[in-house]
Amino acid sequence: MTFAPKNRVQRAAAASAVVVMLGVSGCSLVAEQQTRDIKAVSDGIENQVGPIELRNLIVIADDEGIDGRMVGTLANSSDEDVDLTISAGSTTTDITVDAGGEFRFEEESAEDGTFEGIDSIPGSVLNVDFAVEGEDSTVSIPVLDGTLQEYRDFVPGGYTPRPSEPAATSEAEEGE
Asked: For residues 167 and 50, what is the distance between their CA atoms, to the nearest angstrom?
């Protein structure tokens, strides 16, 4: 079977188009897909210390940043109860997380997650030490205040709204 020059040109053009399309669309074949990189959308941090998953942890502090209360969840992915030691500021607390269970600071008493002497003002980060089963880790946790309504109940000593800006006086408006 012989091919006419016209057919050869058409076949070459079609083959070239297929090669170009594969080259152009093949970029996503080896490039990392952003939808596979799942990130937590929250105010807090996510981390892991041994079998304990730290989920959405933040520290809610008073305006002076003297005391702070941890908010978030600790999840135990093991089949045994785990004792966790948390140290921040001048406070150290021990928490037991049940096997396969969760410990939510928001649902526990204030003593379980309140740290004194943190010296971290809202807007900064607080280095918190976690120790579990011989594994130690220092995690930087964001410090927030009660500006957002959902955090006001967790401010140590209670939330006090800041005074609003003074209203402009007639003298200031007239330029005196």
From this structure: 54
